[in-house]
Amino acid sequence: MGLAGLRIVLMEPAGQINVGSIARVMKNFGLHQLVLVNPQCDPRSPEALMMAVHAKEILESAQLVATLPEALHECVRVIATAGRVSSWETPLENPRTALPWLLEEPEKPVALIFGREDRGLSNEELNYAQRFVRIPTSENYQSLNLATAVGICCYELAQSTQTTETPTLAPNNLAPWDVVEAYYQQLESLLLKIGYLYPHTAASRMEKFRQLYNRTHLQIGEVAMLRGILRQVEWAVNQSNYENL
Amino acid sequence: MGLAGLRIVLMEPAGQINVGSIARVMKNFGLHQLVLVNPQCDPRSPEALMMAVHAKEILESAQLVATLPEALHECVRVIATAGRVSSWETPLENPRTALPWLLEEPEKPVALIFGREDRGLSNEELNYAQRFVRIPTSENYQSLNLATAVGICCYELAQSTQTTETPTLAPNNLAPWDVVEAYYQQLESLLLKIGYLYPHTAASRMEKFRQLYNRTHLQIGEVAMLRGILRQVEWAVNQSNYENL
């Protein structure tokens, strides 16, 4: 288990103080890769650098990208953090239980996503992840400061590298994020074509499929199998169409 | 075990942002008693109140005292936090191991002491405590931000009061075995029809699909959704065939 391949992904962070504090706490716990998606503040502002103290290099080497998919490029395991979530059927797990799973493929890129300070992640953004964590809080005040949430998760990750290793599933070949995403895209376009989905409801229905498949932690061979079916269905549907010409 | 009698004691805190953030994270994790020993900043300044967000009452009710012994008045158990400590022979413990000890006397006052941002606690101050914790950090950067350290300790305290409940799927509607089986049958016959499966290999290939879907613990609504897709594919394939007649 190792922290080297782990990306901390911040979705549209707006607070310079938060971003600087996050760089510091990442270095405190041995993490180095920070990715900012469409940041709403300057991550190299004097305030951010001041809060980073001796972790300025993490801000300086932080990757800035425009979209969440870019931030997740090639990641084989993705966890998203969530606060209160309505209309979400996948279970929210405790960080202590779920986060060590990110460290089970030490050579490969993995990501932990944090939402915006004010409104977290949208359901669409959550759907890019395979597991979801929520830091348990008092019911009287559930909203954690972003840097606090990142700090607690970094602490848990570092703690989990020190303790006895949790038994893992078989040495598996989990499908990278982009491969699974390509399957969803192919599925959606086929379902539109055969009239199962309608353009105006496709997104919400696809959300349910994403939740179902994300839960399974698809392996590379399984995605290939699922895509093979889609190709065969396309072929069967098209062939008849050609015959009609 | 309860958090009600627990005091968070800050020794000469100098950062308003830190004090405000600490109030917030205390409330997030169900703690309410904040004691400031000879503070070097105004704990009710606009900056502090801004960082506290919805925990302003913790700043307003914070007790300000001149000396550490006053802050510890009547406490039956006291733990101090330490960073790097030289010439200190008592062992530094992991917060996860040591902090629950504070909560074993729920009716009585207990305290957790944090040192100054820049130089922690003196040996004399440490000597007021019975146990000592140190949050394990990377050797490359050991110095945690004060609010981060308090946040992690509050999180650990709150975690230790919870009976370890693993979050489960909501009281859900798991599909009965026969409903799932009917889906597998329908899938198999469609895949044979469109030429994805061949009769002599169908069984072994279907095994892989069964493994994939069994892993997800399909719900009733999800099986209905998956079967809806199969019906639509059948329709799309058949329709063209009828047109060919």
TrEMBL record, chains A, B:
- Enumerate the InterPro entries for this protein: Alpha/beta_knot_MTases (IPR029028), RNA_MeTrfase_TrmJ/LasT (IPR004384), SpoU_MeTrfase (IPR001537), tRNA_m1G_MTases_N (IPR029026)
Q: Where in the cell is it found?
A: Cytoplasm
Q: In the UniProt record, does the keyword Transcription regulation occur?
A: no
Q: Which SUPFAM superfamilies match?
A: alpha/beta knot
A Pfam family the protein falls into: SpoU_methylase
Q: What class of enzyme is it?
A: transferase
Give GO BP annotations, semicolon-separated.
Answer: tRNA nucleoside ribose methylation
Q: Which Gene3D superfamilies match?
A: 1.10.8.590, 3.40.1280.10
Identify the keywords attached in UniProt to this record, alphabetized.
Cytoplasm, Methyltransferase, S-adenosyl-L-methionine, Transferase, tRNA processing
Q: Which GO terms describe its molecular function?
A: RNA binding; tRNA (cytidine(32)/uridine(32)-2'-O)-methyltransferase activity
What is catalysed by this protein?
cytidine(32) in tRNA + S-adenosyl-L-methionine = 2'-O-methylcytidine(32) in tRNA + S-adenosyl-L-homocysteine + H(+); uridine(32) in tRNA + S-adenosyl-L-methionine = 2'-O-methyluridine(32) in tRNA + S-adenosyl-L-homocysteine + H(+)
E.C. number(s) listed in UniProt: 2.1.1.200
Which parts of the sequence belong to the tRNA/rRNA methyltransferase SpoU type domain?
A: 6-155
Query: Is Transferase set as a keyword in this record?
Result: yes
Instruction: Tell me which GO cellular component terms the UniProt record holds.
Output: cytosol
Q: Kindly give the PANTHER family that the UniProt entry links to this protein.
A: TRNA (CYTIDINE_URIDINE-2'-O-)-METHYLTRANSFERASE TRMJ, TRNA/RRNA METHYLTRANSFERASE
* The protein's role, per its UniProt record: Catalyzes the formation of 2'O-methylated cytidine (Cm32) or 2'O-methylated uridine (Um32) at position 32 in tRNA.
Q: What binding partners and quaternary form does the record give? A: Homodimer.
Membership in a protein family: Belongs to the class IV-like SAM-binding methyltransferase superfamily. RNA methyltransferase TrmH family.
Q: What is this protein called?
A: tRNA (cytidine/uridine-2'-O-)-methyltransferase TrmJ
Q: Which organism is it from?
A: Mojavia pulchra JT2-VF2
